[in-house]
Amino acid sequence: MNGNKIIILSVFVVVFVIFAIVFGKGMHKDGNVKPRYDERQAAIRGRGYMFAFYSIIIAMCLIPMLLPDTAIAFLGDTIYLIPLFVGLPIHIMYCVWNNAYIELNLNYKSWVCYMLFVGVFNIGLGIWAISSGRMIVDGVLQVNIANLYLGILLFIIVIEILIKNAIDGREEDDDEESEA
C-alpha cells in the first residue's frame, strides 16, 4: 500500500469515528452513543455474525476456485472486498428479518435520514468515480466500487426495514382484529 492510500485511509477512519460519535448521540433517544439490545436481539445478532463469518470464509475459498484468471486480474485489489460484500448483507438481512437490527434506544427517523444521506453520498462518489474514469484503470477495477456498493446496500437496508415494519404492522392489525 503506498503512502497516499495510507493517508486517505487514516483520514477516513478518523472522520468516520468522529462522525459516529457525534451522530451516534443524536441517533439515540437517551443521548448515549452505545446501542442497547435486549437478550433476544443479542442472541440473534450473534447468530447473524456467525452466518456472516462462515459466508465470508466460504467466499474466500470459492473466489480463487470459481473465477478465471482474467476475472481475478480485472478485480485487482477489489477481490479482497468480495467476502465483505457477501458477509455484510447476510448479517444485516438476517438481523432485520428477525427483529434484531434496530436498537431499543434508536431515534428511528434520524437513523433513516442518516442512512439515506450516507447512501446518496456514497452513490455520488461511485458515480463520480465512473464519470471521471477512475472506476476502471488500466483494465483493473478500483476500490471505488466499494462506495457504489455501500450506497446501494444502505438503500436496500432502508427499504428492507420499511417493508419489515409494514409486514409487522399488518400482522399486529390482524392480531388485534382476531382478538376482537
Give a verbal description of the structure.
- With 180 residues, this protein is mainly alpha-helical.
- It is globular, with a radius of gyration of 19 Å.
- A two-stranded antiparallel ribbon has the order 1-2.
- Strand 1 (136-137) and strand 2 (140-141) form a beta hairpin.
- The protein contains six helices and two strands.
List the defining traits of the structure above.
mainly alpha, two-stranded antiparallel ribbon, 75% helix, globular
Short description:
This protein is an all-alpha fold and 180 residues long. The protein is built from six helices and two strands. The chain is globular, with a radius of gyration of 19 Å.
How do the strands of the widest beta sheet line up side by side?
Answer: 1-2
Secondary-structure element order, N to C: HHHHHEEH
Q: Quick one: how many beta strands?
A: 2
Q: What's the helical proportion of residues?
A: over 70%
How can the largest sheet be summarized? 2 strands, antiparallel
Broad structural category: mainly alpha
Topology readout:
Blueprint: H1 3-27, H2 39-66, H3 69-75, H4 82-97, H5 108-131, E1 136-137, E2 140-141, H6 145-179
Helix pairs in contact: 2-4, 4-6, 5-6
